[in-house]
Write a structure and sequence with these properties.
The chain is built from 3 helices and 6 strands, in the order ααββαββββ. The protein has 179 residues and is of the alpha+beta class. It has a 6-stranded mixed β-sheet. Strand 3 and strand 4 (119-131) form a beta hairpin.
């Protein structure tokens, strides 16, 4: 490429404005979770949302996928997510009482148009730091998130979230936080 040439993205690429809007949206969503603003957070989802975290398995090379989509840590829709949010404000959410301190870090944003005309698929790497109590113990949970963002009445909403964790055996005592 010469000094005066301009790199042109292919026609099917996502515009810089759409990428920036999606990135800002997902970073703000992570901050809502870290700040425990769950009542605001639940409003970021479409009514038909699919929120799935499958189980990882250990398989020898050539023996199929190491993702077991039939076994899931989470298999939520809007109603079950809303119920989990409401439960966190009660005294029966023992896995999050006292609440965890969390920090979500998103990176390596990758964008694909669709699947529908008003949707954008965004893959990110997720690193979740979580600590509880006063012992200094903490959990690090890493994985890849695939979000389908949908434009609904001029606002982005999460229509699908799949999180594939990078661990077959979770070291955390419970998975009472959202990913």
């Amino acid at each position: 490429m010469s000094a005066g040439s301009i790199w042109v993205l292919p026609a099917e690429a996502v515009s810089p404005a759409a990428r920036l809007a999606a990135e800002d949206f997902l970073i703000a969503e992570a901050a809502m979770l870290d700040e425990r603003r769950f009542d605001e957070w639940i409003e970021l989802f479409t009514d038909d949302v699919e929120y799935i975290v499958p189980v990882r398995t250990i398989r020898r090379v050539g023996n199929g996928s190491d993702i077991d989509w039939e076994s899931r840590h989470y298999d939520d829709n809007k109603a079950s997510l809303s119920l989990r949010v409401r439960r966190l404000s009660t005294d029966v959410a023992w896995s999050e009482d006292p609440p965890s301190f969390t920090r979500r870090v998103l990176g390596n944003f990758r964008y694909t148009p669709g699947p529908a005309a008003t949707e954008l698929t965004v893959k990110t790497n997720l690193l979740l730091f979580r600590s509880r109590g006063t012992t200094g113990d903490h959990d690090l949970i890493a994985g890849e998130r695939t979000d389908v963002l949908r434009l609904v009445e001029g606002e982005l909403k999460i229509a699908k979230r799949h999180v594939v964790l990078d661990q077959a055996m979770l070291g955390t005592k419970n998975l009472g936080v959202f990913l």
